[in-house]
Each structure stands twice: as structure tokens, then as C-alpha cells.
Specification:
Length: about 475
């Protein structure tokens, strides 16, 4: 009798353990990772931590709906690895995708693309250095950089830290290094290493240390020194491009702004060049095919009650652009202000403070040119800073510049949204999105460039306001609205 009771209890324990195990198994959340295969449109899809022996389905957006494909079945450890072709499925680069196993969804990540050469922007792609010399190449990305191949590692070694690629010369010769970044593509760095120079200590000098350009203008500045010159830093490649051509550095004006350019020679000595691109000096017309840029911004107060942002203080916002635009849309604390002005400005808007505004006070500016290209800029106003706007725009420093904290205090630039964004996305475009949502009153979280649940929630409010499905991700329709400045 005792034996039968013991067997019955043991059987019930086994059933209870089996039930508990099933409960634990059913609660497992799959983790999705994607690895593009260089030189093709194929992507390795890996699912980890999913339910064992379960079907995994990949979900991705199409032009009209969300499609799915069966990836196969996970193994007894909840693991699955397979290869999927982007072209056959029609999955767009940067499209937000996820997997489901047993109805449980993974995190949402962007679909990558390593297949296009030159997709990774580098500060330079052809460099020459001497044995024992090091220099840094910068990639304008926020994602992780990898090095799939170095054809001759005995000639030069590569170190990667964030978006900084350090090249070290080991021995005379040449090598080519393939560098890639998730969702952007790859580029090739061509490296020549020469014997160390020991007989010459000639200082490097430039024909000009400061140049002025207009948009689209080309200019060559002669270099004198030991030779084997390299552009080691360019603080604003979006405004000026700089490339070594023999004993010259070739400059091209891209957009309004200024850049500090550092040029070094094989012996390690360097010289600095400042290039300024004017918005339009009358000698070269600004191309309306380019997005317009903000060329100046100031905020002034009548200091009612002795305070810049006191209740009843009247603010006057003044804006100018680098080309003719329609009347800008200026918002302050989410309120659209009446604006006066024409052409490239100046445009002005006024606002009387109620005292109930959340500080720092968010200011958003959007504008379009005749080609319907849009530009945007964002600021915050506080009582704690003075003349920051002058430093940000290169305006004369004066006490009328007011107390302005430029959110992008190093420079004022338009932001163009070019990729789909979802939870897990990072980068400057996420910062721009968070600033836009803050300005419109839909977001009160940190401006940190990381797309998380708070950003998604604010985006849903933005989408609802403009009649879009509240998906909480930046898809094609949302991209279009954002770039229209709405």
C-alpha cells in the first residue's frame, strides 16, 4: 500500500515538473540577430533563447502590409541559424523586422546591408604613412564597425574604437582593408606604408591657412614638406570635403558652415587649415536640390521683471537660412508662432511668456525651398547661458544674442531623416527625432540618441495627430512627414 502511494506521489511530481517545465519553456522570448554576408544580398538570421523545437517566423514590412516567412524550426536548445536573401523577399535596407516563436515576439531590429561598396562614410580612403607612424580615420556612423578583411596585415595593423579606426604602419608595402558598419555598408581603406624618414625634418606648410568657398566651388591649396600627405581630421565633412592630390589638398564646398582640417606629412608633423563655406556670396548660386540650412538664429527678450524668461517677458526669435525658403514654421513649447519675413530671411516671431512654460523651453524651426526640400533645427532656451548661439553660428559675440542653449551647440544644421527607425535604433537621426517630438510636446524623455519605449510612445502620439497608424516605428510614411517638417 505504501509502495503504491509512493509511486502515485512520484508520478504526480513528474507531471508537476513537466507542467512547470512547459510553463517556463512557453515564457521564453526569442532573441534575433542578423549578420549580412559581404558581397551579396544574403543575410544570416540567428534566433537564440526561443522555445525548443518551435517554428520561427520572420516578420518584415512591405509597401502595403507586414509580410512573414517561415525560417524553420529551432533545435532542442531553442537555437536556429539560417540564411535569407533580401532581394527574393523584398526586404528593404533598414526595415524594422522581428521574429515570433510560439506567438512570442523578439526585439525589433533593422535589416542590414553590407553588399554596397562605399556605403560606409570614411574621412579618407587612401592614406600614406611611414613605418612606425599611426593615424586615425573617422567613420561618420553610430553603429559598430567591423573589419572583415586586411589583405596584408604585416604591412599595417588596424585598431577600431567606436567610430575611430587607427592605422599603424608596420613595414614598407601596401594593403587594403575592408571596413563595414551594420545597416550602412562597407568601404575599402587603401594603405601605403613607406620606409621611415630619418634624413629630413622639413616642416609642413600650406599655401593658405584660411580659405573661403561657396557651395559647389573647388579650390586647391599647395602643401610644402616631406611628402606623403594625409588628411587626418576634418571637423565638418558635411560642409567641406578635403582630399590629397599630390602636393595639394583639394577642397570642395558642400554646404554652409566651417571646417577645421588637419593635414599631416610622413614625418608626423601637421598643419591646420580652416575652410569656410558661405551660404551665397553672389558668385555661385545655391542649388535648390540641396536641403536648406539654418544660417543664423537669435533669441532676444525685453526682460520683463528683470528676467530673460520671466512671466510677461516677450521673446523675439530671428531666423535666417542659406537659401530662399517658404515662411518657416517656428514652434515654441509646441505652440506654432506667427512668422514674418521673406526669401532667405531674416524671419521673426514673437511670444509672450505666461510663466507656465517648461524650462528649458524647446524651439523648433522647419522650412522648405522651392524644390520642396526641407530643413530643420532645434534649440532650447534657458536663463543659464549667454551668447551660446553666437558660438554656434559664428555670429559676432554680443550681449543681444541672449541666453540660448543650442541643442546642437557645435553647429546648426538641418536634419534629413533617411532610414527607418525602431526600438533599438541609435544615432544622430534618433536624437533629431527626440528633439522634434519634444518640440511638439509628444516626448519628455532624455535626448540620448537611443530609440526606446519612451521614444516609441511619443512617436505614436505624433503619428495619431497626423492620421497615420500608431505603429511607434518610423516607416516610409512617417519619414515623408518628418522630412516635410510636419
Amino acid at each position: 500500500m505504501k509502495k503504491s502511494k509512493l509511486v502515485a506521489r512520484f508520478s504526480m511530481l513528474i507531471l508537476l515538473l513537466a507542467f512547470t517545465a512547459n510553463e517556463v519553456k512557453a515564457s521564453q522570448v526569442p532573441f534575433l540577430s542578423l549578420t549580412p554576408i559581404t558581397g551579396s544580398s544574403s543575410v544570416q538570421v540567428v534566433v537564440n533563447g526561443a522555445d525548443p523545437n518551435s517554428e520561427a517566423f520572420l516578420y518584415y514590412p512591405t509597401t502595403s502590409s507586414v509580410a512573414s516567412t517561415d525560417l524553420g524550426q529551432t533545435n532542442v536548445n531553442g537555437y536556429l541559424s539560417t540564411t535569407t536573401n533580401s532581394s527574393l523577399l523584398g526586404i528593404a535596407v533598414n526595415a524594422p523586422v522581428y521574429v515570433r516563436t510560439n506567438g512570442i515576439q523578439s526585439q525589433i531590429i533593422s535589416w542590414p546591408n553590407y553588399s554596397s561598396a562605399g556605403g560606409l562614410p570614411l574621412s579618407q580612403t587612401n592614406i600614406t604613412l611611414s613605418v612606425g607612424q599611426s593615424l586615425v580615420v573617422t567613420a561618420s556612423v553610430s553603429g559598430q564597425i567591423s573589419m572583415p578583411n586586411n589583405t596584408n596585415p604585416s604591412v599595417a595593423g588596424i585598431g577600431i574604437s567606436g567610430n575611430q579606426i587607427t592605422v599603424n604602419g608596420f613595414a614598407p608595402g601596401s594593403t587594403s582593408v575592408n571596413l563595414c558598419a551594420a545597416y550602412l555598408g562597407c568601404n575599402t581603406l587603401f594603405i601605403t606604408v613607406q620606409s621611415a624618414i630619418t634624413t629630413s625634418n622639413t616642416n609642413i606648410s600650406l599655401g593658405q591657412s584660411q580659405v573661403n568657398l561657396t557651395v559647389g566651388q573647388h579650390l586647391s591649396v599647395p602643401i610644402t614638406g616631406n611628402g606623403a600627405y594625409t588628411v587626418t581630421d576634418n571637423s565638418a565633412r558635411s560642409s567641406v570635403t578635403a582630399n590629397i592630390n599630390g602636393n595639394n589638398v583639394d577642397l570642395t564646398g558642400v554646404a554652409f558652415g566651417g571646417a577645421n582640417i588637419k593635414i599631416c606629412q610622413i614625418s608626423g608633423q601637421c598643419a591646420n587649415l580652416y575652410a569656410y563655406v558661405s551660404p551665397n556670396n553672389g558668385t555661385a548660386a545655391v542649388q535648390v536640390s540641396q536641403a536648406p540650412l539654418l544660417s543664423s538664429f537669435s533669441a532676444n527678450s525685453n526682460n520683463a521683471g528683470g528676467g530673460f524668461l520671466n512671466a510677461s517677458s516677450m521673446l523675439t526669435l530671428t531666423v535666417a537660412t542659406n537659401q530662399d525658403v517658404n515662411t518657416p514654421i517656428i514652434t515654441l513649447n509646441g505652440i506654432t508662432l506667427p512668422v514674418s519675413g521673406s526669401n532667405s530671411g531674416p524671419y521673426t516671431a514673437t511670444y509672450t511668456l505666461t510663466g507656465n512654460e517648461v524650462k528649458p523651453i524647446a524651439v523648433g524651426i522647419t522650412f522648405k525651398n522651392s524644390a520642396n526640400n526641407s530643413g530643420q533645427a532645434y534649440f532650447s532656451l534657458s536663463n543659464s547661458a549667454s551668447n551660446i548661439v553666437a558660438a554656434a553660428t559664428g555670429l559676432p559675440n554680443n550681449n543681444t544674442a541672449s541666453a540660448v542653449d543650442a541643442v546642437n551647440s557645435s553647429s546648426i544644421k538641418s536634419v534629413e531623416f533617411t532610414r527607418l527607425l525602431s526600438i533599438g535604433s541609435r544615432g544622430n537621426d534618433v536624437i533629431a527625432l527626440q528633439k522634434r517630438l519634444t518640440t511638439d510636446g509628444f516626448y519628455s524623455g532624455p535626448i540620448n540618441g537611443s530609440f526606446g519605449p519612451l521614444t516609441s510612445a511619443g512617436l505614436k502620439k505624433y503619428q495619431t495627430k497626423h492620421g497615420l497608424p500608431a505603429a511607434g516605428v518610423v516607416g516610409p510614411a512617417t519619414l515623408k512627414l518628418l522630412n516635410q517638417g510636419l
